[in-house]
Amino acid sequence: MASVLITGAAARLGRAIAEELHRDHQVVIHYRHSAEAAHQLADTLNALRPNSATALHSDLRTKADCEQLAAAATECFGGLSLLVNNASAFYPTPVGSADEQQWDELMGSNLKAPFFLSQALAPALTKAGGCIVNLADIHAEKPMPEHTIYSAAKAGLVMMTKSLARELAPAVRVNGVAPGAILWPEHESEGYNKEQILARIPMQRSGDPSDIARTVRFLAADAPYITGQVIAVDGGRSLNI
């Protein structure tokens, strides 16, 4: 059975992706702080199918962190055929108050870690004829007010997706999913007013985590001739930003 590593998989979109892919994958659930939620999810999935899920911790701050997680994830089920780079920090950084720690965290989680994880897992994915799916953002192309660093990091992730698709072809496909209004941030910030956003979405509603999870599944399992692409799953919001 194919195996997948999903970063930031203990909650929110990562959890939905883990539950969807668990239908026909062995799942490695990465977490940073959410140990209890990650292990509970693994227990839930293992109750459905024994020895099909496990949880691994990593900060993913350094190249060494990424390499250690890649090695551990590969050992869990004797190989790996899919990497989903989902873990992401997200918060505003208004120009004039942003600091270097915020730069390092936002660039680290959204760009640095996906690159070094992809690099570390490239041999295993090549051997498996596997693929990488990166969770980007529609704001990689249309910046969100007061989120300059986050938007820039996601723009970098989009270019990384395209670059890796060229470099790792033909053995490994690399694609991305750009969510729109799916899950709302815990704290409302400038540029993220829920009512204003919903009013500008052509579909006139927010999406569901399952919309993202099913798109990840499509790119992983049902799109053998698609690589280097980023699919916006946003109800048309990127048409009207």
TrEMBL record:
<dbReference type="InterPro" id="IPR036291">
    <property type="entry name" value="NAD(P)-bd_dom_sf"/>
</dbReference>
<keyword id="KW-0560">Oxidoreductase</keyword>
<dbReference type="InterPro" id="IPR002347">
    <property type="entry name" value="SDR_fam"/>
</dbReference>
<dbReference type="InterPro" id="IPR020904">
    <property type="entry name" value="Sc_DH/Rdtase_CS"/>
</dbReference>
<dbReference type="Pfam" id="PF13561">
    <property type="entry name" value="adh_short_C2"/>
</dbReference>
<comment type="similarity">
    <text>Belongs to the short-chain dehydrogenases/reductases (SDR) family.</text>
</comment>
<dbReference type="GO" id="GO:0047040">
    <property type="term" value="F:pteridine reductase activity"/>
</dbReference>
<protein>
    <submittedName>
        <fullName>Pteridine reductase</fullName>
        <ecNumber>1.5.1.33</ecNumber>
    </submittedName>
</protein>
